[in-house]
Amino acid sequence: MSSVAIQQAAAMAAPHAARKQGQPYALELRDLRKSFGKSEIIRGAQLAVNAGERIAIIGPNGAGKSTLFNLISGRFAPSSGEVLLHGERIDGKKPFEINRMGLSRSFQITNIFPKLSVFENLRCGVLWSLGYRYSFWRFLSNLHDANARTEELMEMIGLHRKRDTLAVNLTYAEQRALEIGITIGGGASVILLDEPTAGMSNSETAHFIQLIKKVTEGKTLLTVEHDMGVVFGLADKIAVVVYGEVIAFDTPEAVRANARVQEAYLGSSVAEQQAGGH
Ligand SMILES: Nc1ncnc2c1ncn2[C@@H]1O[C@H](COP(=O)(O)OP(=O)(O)OP(=O)(O)O)[C@@H](O)[C@H]1O
Prior knowledge:
Blueprint (H helix, E strand, L loop, with lengths): L2 H10 L14 E10 L2 E11 L4 E5 L6 H8 L7 E6 L2 E2 L5 H6 L2 E3 L12 H13 L5 H21 L15 H14 L4 E5 L7 H14 L4 E5 L3 H7 L2 E6 L2 E6 L1 H6 L1 H6 L1 H10 L3
Parallel strand pairs: 3-8, 3-9, 6-7, 7-8
Antiparallel strand pairs: 1-2, 1-4, 4-5, 9-10
Helix pairs in contact: 1-8, 4-5, 4-6, 6-7
Bound molecules: adenosine-5'-triphosphate (ATP).
């Protein structure tokens, strides 16, 4: 993506969602720490995300971005500190419990059922979220709603014409769209996407940024991202993670101008990537 396109996309990013007084943050990390053996990987991370904000988490390789996602989504329990979802503690809870509380993390493509159609894949996600696994009778009563919701999702992610296509026969970009459809299918209000455009061409990426914006409208979005075109096109705010700490959390413009960030990571990277046409 060219630097002009990046600036245009940044200008179009949603205005920052304001937090009403007394309302909890959609997601909050308080002095979060995680050690693997003797190595402390996350070192007192702090973050407070308002409902409806789109956040990109960036940082050098090995800074701890994926580990943060794993701590938030419940794959890892923190060594200490707190994770709050809409003001409720979720640290230490299991991934499915956190999912039920309204936070959904993108499934990897390997979690798409390759031999099921687009419709069937999406409906699995929707039915799961409606709780069909607890009761067959509930499953039957929910089926109508689930079908309607699935049709709506298919339209939203632009795969309605591929309704009966098996997931294995979709293009890579279509599979990633399906993955996002499954992630948002359950109606979660906080969505975590791990490098959603990785492996896509420039034109696919530009299209996908718009798709992500559309399907996460009104939701809180966190992405881990390396591509600065995606970061500046998608994010209301950027969290810069360096060595297990959030060293800056601000608007793209402010982060770009932040001396500590430039020194630690971003200055050269943005300049290089923009010059490189990303
Ligand atoms: N399960 C684990 N056991 C031991 N060490 C781990 C584990 N998971 C991550 N680490 C270590 O934690 C550090 C941070 O890794 P992490 O994957 O979170 O970084 P990252 O910022 O996502 O990097 P990248 O941008 O390269 O994906 C690395 O040194 C990694 O080796």
